[in-house]
Amino acid sequence: MKTRMTSADIAVETACLRAMGCIGMRVANVYDINAKTYLIKLSRSGGETGESQKVLLLLESAVRFHSTQFARDKSSMPSNFTVKLRKHLRSRRLESVQQLGLDRVVDFTFGSGDAAYHLILELYSSGNVILTDCNYNILTLLRSYKDETKGVATMANHPYPIEGVKEPTTCDRATLEAALRAAAAEPTEKGPKTLKQAVGSALAYGPSIVEHCILSAGLKPSAGVEPSLLPPQSDLMLDALCKAVAELEDWLQVKRLPRLPHGCCPILLESASSADQFGVKNDYLDLVQ
After folding, report:
1. Residues 6 or more apart from 223 whose CB is under 8 A from it?
2. Where is the signal peptide, in residue numbers (predicted)?
3. Beta-strand runs (E) in the chain
């Protein structure tokens, strides 16, 4: 069972949480399940109806985030990190949940204006959970680290490097053609690069999404990129590939809207068309305990 979330998974899950009505709910409490997993209890008073609403939001550093229906054992004593989260987030309203560009990073905004706090969940590499103020200055975090190549220090009292976010871009025909030509010009020791490798160099959505686009175009991901696969001999193939990528990017754009349009449906990956299906992304992720 897949547990790591891709960039596309994150786009879907942020949309799921917005569609569930989590925006506007207040933090009732924060719990730690273990050193990397945290549970945020959100609630909304019933008002005139008298029916209150509660949602348990699970955040696991480097792995996943989603609402959960399962009861989980909590630490008998909250960690220092959890105590700090409670201090800054309790009673504050969840104002937004958004993916930072194309990165596997989620930004939960609690409160508004100068009183806002950002809880940033990193889902790549070793992961991280980071609390910042309204200006993205880091207050506390699970782990500190430095990236010497980028000259970035992720630690308390430093700004979170939000300016380094990879922004969404459109992969057009010229980009795909250039990727195919580059792959054909640089074969590996074992032979030609595969179509999956070539298209993967042009897309930033992860191998499963790349494979989906290729299969949707009626092509084989494992096919070698030979000169016969290059335009003009393969204009029809490139047209089909461009159409598949455009459909994916249109779908992702909808998922990034602040509110989902009525009737918006999840995408079914071609490689998983025979697998078990779930009503929403949360249901699948919640099985991973």
Report:
1. 194, 195, 229
2. none
3. 26-32, 37-44, 53-60, 64-67, 94-99, 105-110, 117-122, 128-132, 138-141, 145-147, 152-154
Token pair recorded at residue 282: 């949360």
Query: Token pair of 100, please?
Result: 């930072």
Matching residue, tokens 């500190």: 144
Q: Whose structure tokens read 């409160």?
A: 111
pLDDT in tens, the chain (289 residues): 556 898 888 988 998 999 889 999 999 999 999 999 999 999 998 766 668 899 999 999 999 999 999 888 898 899 999 999 999 999 999 999 999 988 999 999 999 999 999 999 999 999 999 999 999 999 999 999 998 888 889 999 999 999 888 877 788 999 999 999 999 999 998 899 999 999 999 988 788 889 999 999 999 999 999 887 788 888 999 999 999 999 988 887 766 655 554 444 455 566 555 555 545 555 656 655 5
273 within a domain of the structure (yes/no): no
Examine the domain organization and report whether 20 and 78 are in the same domain.
yes
Q: 160: closest CA among 133, 134, 144, 138?
A: 138
CATH code where residue 139 lies: 2.30.310.10
CB count within 10 Å of CB 90 equals: 15
**Can you give the residue range of the structural domain that contains 109?**
7-164
Domain membership of residue 276 (yes or no) is no
| Angle of the 235-255 helix axis to the 7-19 helix axis, nearest 10 | 40
- Give CA–CA dist 118/284, Å, rounded: 26
197, 199, 267, 287 from 238: Cα distances, Å:
15, 11, 22, 39
Give the number of domains in the chain: 2
| Residue 157 sits in the same domain as residue 187 | no
Q: How far is 202 from 220, CA to CA, in rounded Å?
A: 17
- Any domain includes 275: no
